[in-house]
Amino acid sequence: MSHSKYDYSDIQGLKEKGESEEAAVKVNPTDPESIPKFVDPLPIPALAKPVNRCDDLEQERELFYHIVMKQTKHRFHRDFPLTTVWGYNGMCPGPTIEVQKDVPVKIKWENRLPDKHIFPVDHTLHGTMDTPDVRTVV
Fold first, then answer.
1. Helix, strand, coil percentages in the chain from 3-state DSSP, rounded to 5
2. I need a surface site. Which of 42, 82, 83, 107 has the fewest CB within 10 A?
3. For the CA atoms of 54, 55, 58, 60, what is the dihedral angle to 10 degrees?
4. CB-based contact 41:30 (threshold 8 Å)
5. Which residues pair with 86 in a beta bridge?
6. Looking at domain 38-114, does it have CATH number 2.40.50.140?
7. Which pTM value belongs to this model?
């Protein structure tokens, strides 16, 4: 019994369980030859906007950004379903932080990721036994 939301048994395409044949996506994500190339516009991440509200700003010119790490949905290809991902400010990839030389920047990273990882974690690996499944590295 498959616990997946998608039915991969049909090599002709990917469809959600219970979805009609007409609504099925016409590519197999496990077969690179079936995936149309260069059909999506190049994703250009949005620019992060500084919040400029930080109590410990050292200079007036210092820019302050608040970036939230959280779970969201993203479509990696027009013919693929939405996929659960972890992103920044609800985007994958996250926003672009545009900076200028000699202008200090502070960033507050807020972790709103779920406690349970979206992928299985092998706790037999060294260093994973007594640490949380979700650890952030920015």
1. 5, 25, 70
2. 42
3. 60
4. no
5. 71
6. no
7. 0.65
